[in-house]
């Protein structure tokens, strides 16, 4: 039976745009949860589950409503309903931009990482028209630092041959439509060559215009850099390359991320499904969605759950420590209070001890004579006739209490507990001394 948690139990948001991206996200979950009840005014539909140590909530854009505005609306409602989410992932597909600097191929993964002056995502259609051309305005926030650190950790694991990407990707091999073999061949045409024929497939396109590329030893390559986001679908290689040059070099184009970056801390992960040219089709979408989802899972696998737990549990921990300290000093145990009483009595005796002179010596001798006359037991009587073991108390205080305080805990009591002894326990100690 699927688990049912509260909305506040989910700490990671996952946003996708297309049904194929949602299917890949659901397939990568380690455990599916029952969606908790939420406000009926929230128009999103959520899929909840667990990825590694994290409880993840997934939302997809309404069908047919792609773009930055729709993505922003979904993110705002998710943040309102699942208010404990600390960051999110925008995971899906995009159009790759192959270049001499980046050998981007179909099925590769592109990750939004700050590059040069860009934050990782640039909105190419936000700006103003000037005499010299289109001028971009504004800037988008960078992804959360914890996710950028996770990207670096995943890259380090890959360099050491410890990447988990292919292992997570193998989960899709059992599902129809997501395998690499079903995607077909990876063909890149020259930028100036246009698609031929009405069909989406390139059966009528000439192979003479295919760009020759070396064979790869790796199946999936992860590229980190700038992602271009806007409300237009790029389907022309010349436009693709021109925009990329104007933006300082981008790795892929997509249509939603710009709506999230400033309102929802987000890392954008895109699987390359086409080359943003006239030859684009849907054959690689399923496989590209699976590579993006597998990489997103690898990123979450290196982010410890403690990142969220520290923020939530710290106040409770402080209260526990404060209560423990309070109980020690105000409730105390018998040993602590006995030592404090003994020290107080010893201090009073020392404070009241008269200076030694001939008169005091004579008074002392007279007192000894009177005590011996009162009886053989060594007890002296006060004015009411009640015997008081002054010598026993004095010797016990001097030998047992004072030495223990001086040797074992004098510095600790004087430094750590002086203020509390004076303020918190003075009245109680005075009463105890009077009773003695």
Automatic annotation (TrEMBL):
Residues 12-295 form the Nucleoside phosphorylase domain. One of its GO terms (biological process) is nucleoside metabolic process. Residues 365-376, 386-436 have a biased composition (Acidic residues). InterPro entries: NLR-like, Nucleoside_phosphorylase_d, Nucleoside_phosphorylase_sf. One of its GO terms (molecular function) is catalytic activity. Residues 324-436 are annotated as: Disordered. PANTHER family: AAA+ ATPASE DOMAIN-CONTAINING PROTEIN-RELATED, ATP/GTP-BINDING PROTEIN-RELATED. This is Nucleoside phosphorylase domain-containing protein.
């Amino acid at each position: 039976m699927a688990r049912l948690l509260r909305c506040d139990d989910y700490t990671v948001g996952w946003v996708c745009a297309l049904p194929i991206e949602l299917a890949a996200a659901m397939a990568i979950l380690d455990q599916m949860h029952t969606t908790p009840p939420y406000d009926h005014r929230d128009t999103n539909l959520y899929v909840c589950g667990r990825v590694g140590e994290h409880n993840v909530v997934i939302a997809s854009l309404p069908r047919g409503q792609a773009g930055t505005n729709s993505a922003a609306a979904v993110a705002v409602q998710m943040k309102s309903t699942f208010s404990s989410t600390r960051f999110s992932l925008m995971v899906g597909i995009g159009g790759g931009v192959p270049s001499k600097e980046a050998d981007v191929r179909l099925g590769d993964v592109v990750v939004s990482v700050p590059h040069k002056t860009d934050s990782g995502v640039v909105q190419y259609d936000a700006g103003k028209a000037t005499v010299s051309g289109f001028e971009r305005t504004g800037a988008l926030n960078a992804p959360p630092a914890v996710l950028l650190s996770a990207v670096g950790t995943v890259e380090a694991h890959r360099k050491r041959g410890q990447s988990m990407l292919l292992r997570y990707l193998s989960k899709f091999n059992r599902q129809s439509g997501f395998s690499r073999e079903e995607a077909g061949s990876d063909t890149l045409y020259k930028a100036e060559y246009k698609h031929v024929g009405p069909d989406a497939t390139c059966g009528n396109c000439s192979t003479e215009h295919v760009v020759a590329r070396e064979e790869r030893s790796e199946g999936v390559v992860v590229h980190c850099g700038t992602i271009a986001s806007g409300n237009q679908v790029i389907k022309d290689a010349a436009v693709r390359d021109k925009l990329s040059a104007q933006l300082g070099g981008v790795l892929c184009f997509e249509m939603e991320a710009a709506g999230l970056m400033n309102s929802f801390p987000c890392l954008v992960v895109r699987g390359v499904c086409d080359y943003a040219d006239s030859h684009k089709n849907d054959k690689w979408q399923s496989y590209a969605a699976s590579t993006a989802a597998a990489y997103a899972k690898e990123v979450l696998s290196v982010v410890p759950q403690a990142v969220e737990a520290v923020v939530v549990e710290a106040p409770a921990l402080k209260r526990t420590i404060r209560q423990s300290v309070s109980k020690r000093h105000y409730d105390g145990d018998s040993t602590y209070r006995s030592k404090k009483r003994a020290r107080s009595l010893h201090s009073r005796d020392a404070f009241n001890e008269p200076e030694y002179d001939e008169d005091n010596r004579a008074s002392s001798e007279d007192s000894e004579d009177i005590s011996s006359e009162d009886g053989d037991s060594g007890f002296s009587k006060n004015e009411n006739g009640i015997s008081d073991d002054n010598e026993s108390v004095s010797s016990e205080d001097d030998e047992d209490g004072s030495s223990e305080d001086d040797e074992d805990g004098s510095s600790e009591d004087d430094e750590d507990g002086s203020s509390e002894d004076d303020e918190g326990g003075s009245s109680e100690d005075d009463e105890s001394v009077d009773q003695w």
